[in-house]
């Protein structure tokens, strides 16, 4: 059974950093693109970043390029999102999501993932 569990959210001051973790189980890790979506009150869901475990290709939303870094550890079935220089607009619930057989990385933000985690809250104080 597929399971995705996020951790690492919390409250951080603007300009600070957080590292989110996604623990994946129940499927062949390397067959999937694993990524992070976020949603804040009043905002649409946004695809933040994803990584294809098979070759390490990555995608970043323009709003987080240069500040966030996604990485994976296939041996541990873990995906990480290092978030630096956090801004108030980064506050949201962050969801880990797994997408099987992604054909074009640039289209990942508009795909419907096959599985979702429960979400972890990221709050920013000014």
Structural notes for this entry:
This protein has 126 residues and is mostly beta strands. Helix content is 0%, strand content 51%. It contains no helices and 11 strands. It has strands at 3-7, 10-13, 18-25, 32-39, 46-52, 58-60, 68-73, 78-83, 92-100, 115-116, 120-125. The strands form 2 sheets. Strands 2, 4, 5, 6, 9, 10 and 11 form a 7-stranded mixed β-sheet that branches. A 4-stranded antiparallel β-sheet has the order 1-3-8-7, with no helix packed on it. The chain starts with a strand and ends with a strand.
Q: Which features does this protein show?
A:
four-stranded antiparallel sheet; 126 residues; mainly beta
Give a short summary of the structure.
By secondary structure, this protein is mostly beta strands. It has strands at 3-7, 10-13, 18-25, 32-39, 46-52, 58-60, 68-73, 78-83, 92-100, 115-116, 120-125.
């Amino acid at each position: 059974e597929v399971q995705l569990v996020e951790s690492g959210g919390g409250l951080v001051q603007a300009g600070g950093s957080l590292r989110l973790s996604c623990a994946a189980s129940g499927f062949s890790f390397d067959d999937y693109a694993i990524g992070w979506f976020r949603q804040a009150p009043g905002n649409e869901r946004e695809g933040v970043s994803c990584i294809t475990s098979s070759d390490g290709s990555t995608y970043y939303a323009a709003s987080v390029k240069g500040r966030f870094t996604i990485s994976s550890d296939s041996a541990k079935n873990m995906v990480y999102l290092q978030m630096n220089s956090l801004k108030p607009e980064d506050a949201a619930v962050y969801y880990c999501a797994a997408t099987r057989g992604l054909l074009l990385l640039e289209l990942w933000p508009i795909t419907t993932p096959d599985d979702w985690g429960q979400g972890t809250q990221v709050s920013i104080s000014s």
